[in-house]
Amino acid sequence: MRRRKTTSAIRVAQVLLAVVSLLVLGGTAFAWSKLNQITDGLTRSDVIGAGAGSPMGEQNILMVGLDTRTDAEGNPLPEDVLDQLHAGGAEDGGDTTDTMIVVHIPAGGGNATAISIPRDSYVQLAGKFGKHKINSAYTYGQIARKNELKATGESGAQLETDSAQAGAKTAIETVQQLTGLTITHYAAVNLAGFYYVSQAVGGIPVCLKAPVKDSYSGANFAAGQQNVAGAQALQFVRQRHGLPNGDLDRIKRQQVFMASMAKTILSAGTLTDPGKLDALIGAVKKAVVVDTNWDLLGFAQQLHGMSAGSINFVTIPVVSITLKTPNDGDAVQVDPKQVQQFVREQTGSASAPSSSTGAPPSSSAGDPALAAYTVDVRNSSGVDGLANRVADKLAAAGYSRGSVTNSATRRTSTVYYGRGQRSQAEAIGEKLGGVAVASDNSLEKDHFRVYLGQKYSDDSGVHPASAPAVLQAPAAGSAPDITADGVTCVN
Fold first, then answer.
1. Are strands 224-228 and 288-291 parallel, antiparallel or unpaired?
2. Of 4, 114, 439, 447, which shows the fewest CB atoms inside 10 Å?
3. CB neighbours of 393 closer than 8 A, spacing ≥ 6?
4. Distance from first CA to last CA of the chain, Å, rounded?
5. For strand 374-379 and strand 400-406, is the pairing parallel, antiparallel, or unpaired?
6. What is the tens place of the pLDDT at every residue in 358-373?
């Protein structure tokens, strides 16, 4: 019985750390004695209905970073912290959602996908608030409710937490409208969350392609790899002025920061250091709010066997980053239909568009020995249907068909393989006409992933010649999509 309790404690700890780093973490080794320290005092908010999702069913967790000057319990952040964060006073800021990510976890467990939504995406807000930037959905819902509660005499921390609940509900409903997903759980990290958590673990490794200096966020960093903690961590994830792709570059910053944070938290230096562990638990309590109905223990069971490298970061497609709006200035233009199609492809909830039957082809016609190898195919070429044609070809040869989705545009094609399986990857590359191979230790044994770049041509004679009409977040050269596996250099 003791062993089961210890395992449960470990998994609950995994979930709570996943909330902090916005990642699904696995393999941690927390003691049972830490369980009550983590769960007791965690701030909850009644924003999701009790029937939104079962513990072992499909999970869609909306994680938001709030530009708020209060902590998880509605109390003002200390003035010295606000000064370091370049955040103004406790009365400044509009409590917008600077970060919005939906983490999708398949029913029964499996690799997770973190879908970033640009904060300036111009969308129809839930309720009767009209069309605005998606980061203001929280603000509109919060302010409307706050005015109602003020009229009844409510004030202080209670007013902040009650109005925040209404803001969260508006944000959740708006994301559901845009993505077509049902949000099953909600987690919010306040403005100082990255500040507290990065300090607790002794800094987070990040890497920049070039030096930056930005007076708005306070960011002042040299080029190359470096550790950021406290105010610097928040400056790193908040900067968008002076970046080539504005908010899309900021999203990439957030993704690589969170991946690096996961790796740092999983390291023995964090998990075996009682001081760091206690500081991390304290940071969670100050920075994080989760929904009332989230059964963390049940959810943790679903994460069994997942590792930090089992999550992939993607960004929804955008049409333009310079949309002129009537009242909100420049915004990011998105097409809800394209977004929902992209989300379906990323989450595996629908067959890819060019599939004629919706059922994966049988691999029985090929070499039976190859059925032990599963191959995912990512279309990074911008050519409709290319990934499906390649997946069909591999299945006909005998390989087991993995997931088939679109991915951020890249020029070259690569077959990625896990530890000790280079020769099998080379065979796949040869089957595809001589595609190069590369190691990705996050892949499980006998699991391979093919990225089809713009230079790839299949046997049908298709030669990609142009970028897709829908813009994607900038790709990091020929590197694979960001996972919680290493430090990626960004703008």
1. unpaired
2. 4
3. 431, 432, 458, 459
4. 50
5. parallel
6. 333 333 445 778 888 9
